[in-house]
Design goal:
By secondary structure, the protein is an alpha/beta fold. It has 21 helices and ten strands. Helix 11 packs antiparallel against helix 12. The radius of gyration is 37 Å and the shape is elongated.
């Protein structure tokens, strides 16, 4: 349980008032429970006609506080005897039954109140965990997601959080209520007979050891179970994304066998987890019964030998409380299994929540709202890990209003280079300056506010066209959105749609063609109106007609802006002020289109191949 409170404590701390209120109500419930149980003593005495001696009322005073138990038992019997004399045994039992019913009503009311007070805690904790995961995902660097499987991340956000809700959330009531019941009940047991209670406490550790061993194995298997589930979801997600290729290469059987293998592994581990979890109740039930039998024997021995002041009715009351103590113990043991399973999910979630974000701002970052002079890369090198360098000693300068182009084979480091400017990654060595200021000293928000991106794959969200164009721009008006769409050559096809700008584009913009998606992406960049523009192969995946429309939109967008363009089609960047040719992470050539052709080097070879 220590690990449980270490991990979940920061969430529980936000709901202190609910926890304190629930504790108070549950204390009241447990005390009322004892009171309701106490009514069985006079009922048993009446049933078995044990009242042979006459009881006299004994007033309670501070000088007799040590005899509290004796006085209370005497006075209970006195009033029961008085009622029998006045109303008869049957009526007395009816009256005691009514008292029992009233006490039970208030007890169950307090029980319900304790559970109701914990509902905001349970639902709030799950909400907070989901919010924390989502907020962390938004702020983690892109490198984190290149190392993790998308299906695994989705499993942690969905299935693992649901597992925490089902296991830890459902156990909160038990973990808060039952310890109170156990403490109150044990206090009464000690008051009734400390010798018998001490003997009982020597038996309890047997139950705890057995439960602990099962719980540890359950947690280990639960971690493995969630891992296998992540694998199956990852494969399902890959299948949906690559269905066209799977069908084209007649690989349905291969993918089916691959999925069924992982699914079978998940089934096997799920069986082991379910079997161990199912063992919780039988094990605790058996050990609890054995404990009652042993206590029954020892208690009988104390009474028959005259070594205990307990009489038959009080001993039955003792056994009732003891058995009532076992149920909270069993519930805690079952909750312990659930908590172990939930902790396995929480450990997987913590891999996201505790992942280090190496893109950090300085203590007092500088604000930047405009590009005045230039962007400059000074001896920039970068690697995702120490094994292989992606960029090596890159130095280049982009003056305000200029357009530079980056060309080179796939894998030469072009996209990585432009990702360094908005600090999607940080340089391994060297520095990047904007107007002479190292970008690591700038506010991330203001830095990225300077930059607009148009990528090869137009990333749209499952929302309306209006909201996709206005994405990231607060309080954009219809007129502003339409003006941006017109510049991007998108207004015409948007107006031809059934609901115009309120048309939903579908998942990842799937209801639109590639050219339409790209023009909406350009309209989004136009509306943001950034002084720096990064174009990452924005036309390479389009047909000729779409490319013409998109290229025209890009030329409008690039006017009066500082632009860094990555291009495979060299025809789109002929008018760039400077073209940098990258090869294996290094700049091997630079110059205008004509200068590079005249050099007859790597760039000319690329140009000749495209001409062919």
């Amino acid at each position: 349980m220590k690990e449980f409170f270490q991990i979940m404590g920061k969430y529980f701390a936000r709901y202190k008032k609910y926890i304190v209120s629930a504790l108070g109500v549950n204390v009241l419930s447990s005390v009322l429970n004892l009171f309701s149980f106490a009514t069985i003593i006079p009922i048993l005495n009446i049933l078995f006609q044990k009242e042979e001696k006459a009881y006299e009322y004994m007033p309670l005073s501070w000088d007799k506080i040590d005899d509290l138990k004796t006085i209370l038992l005497n006075d209970v019997n006195y009033y029961a005897q008085l009622m029998v004399e006045q109303h008869g045994p049957a009526t007395t039992m009816l009256l005691l039954g009514i008292v029992l019913s009233i006490a039970t009503f208030f007890k169950t009311g307090a029980y319900f109140g304790g559970s109701a007070l914990l509902m905001p805690l349970r639902t709030g904790v799950i909400r907070d965990i989901r919010n924390d995961i989502y907020n962390k995902v938004l702020r983690l660097p892109l490198s984190f997601f290149s190392e993790e499987k998308k299906g695994d991340i989705l499993t942690r956000v969905s299935t693992d959080v649901n597992e925490i809700d089902a296991s830890i959330g459902a156990s909160l009531d038990t973990l808060i209520k039952n310890p109170i019941l156990i403490v109150v009940y044990m206090g009464m047991l000690i008051a009734l007979s400390w010798q018998l209670t001490l003997f009982t406490l020597l038996v309890v550790p047997i139950l705890a050891v057995a439960i602990g061993k099962i719980g540890k194995s359950l947690k280990a298997n639960s971690i493995l179970q969630q891992s296998k589930l992540s694998d199956s979801i990852s494969q399902f997600e890959e299948t949906l994304g690559g269905l066209r290729i799977i069908k084209a290469f007649i690989a349905e059987k291969k993918m089916q066998d691959r999925f069924e293998k992982v699914n079978e592994e998940f089934r096997d581990i799920a069986n082991r987890v379910a079997i161990r979890q199912s063992a919780a109740h039988p094990v605790s039930e058996f050990l609890g019964t054995v404990m009652i039998v042993i206590v029954l024997w020892f208690g009988g021995y104390l009474i028959f030998s005259g070594k205990s002041s307990l009489d038959g009715g009080v001993f039955i009351y003792y056994l009732v409380i003891l058995y009532s103590t076992l149920q909270p113990l069993k519930d805690i043991s079952k909750a312990g299994y659930s908590v172990q399973k939930g902790l396995a999910s929480m450990e997987r979630i913590n891999k996201i929540l505790e992942a280090e974000n190496n893109i950090k701002e300085t203590a007092n970052p500088k604000q930047i709202n405009e590009l005045h002079n230039c962007i400059e890369l000074k001896n920039v090198s970068f690697s995702y890990d120490a094994s292989r360098e992606i960029l090596h000693q890159i130095s280049l300068k982009v003056n305000k209003g200029d357009t530079i182009a980056l060309v080179g084979q796939s894998g030469s480091g072009k996209s990585t280079l432009v990702d360094l400017i908005p600090r999607f990654h940080d340089v391994s060595s060297g520095e990047i300056d904007i107007d002479g200021q190292d970008i690591r000293t700038l506010s991330l928000h203001s830095l990225r506010g300077l930059i607009g991106n148009v990528n090869q794959e137009a990333i749209l969200f499952n929302d309306t066209i209006f909201n996709n164009i206005a994405f990231g721009v607060e309080n954009a008006t219809q007129e502003q959105v339409e003006a941006a769409a017109k510049i991007a050559n998108a207004h015409e096809f948007i107006m031809e749609m059934e609901q115009g700008y309120q048309t939903n584009v579908g998942d990842r913009g799937g209801r639109l063609s590639g050219g339409q998606r790209q023009r909406i992406s350009i309209a989004r960049a136009i509306l943001k109106n950034p002084p720096i523009l990064i174009l990452d192969e924005a036309t390479s995946a389009l047909d000729t007609e779409s490319e013409r429309l998109v290229q025209d939109a890009l030329e409008k967008l690039m006017k009066t802006r500082t632009t860094i363009a990555i291009a495979h089609r060299l025809s789109t960047i002929k008018n760039a002020n400077i073209i940098y040719v990258l090869h294996e992470g290094k700049i091997v050539e630079q110059g205008t289109h004509e200068q590079l052709i005249a050099q007859g080097g790597y760039y000319k070879k690329l140009n000749d191949m495209q001409s062919l």
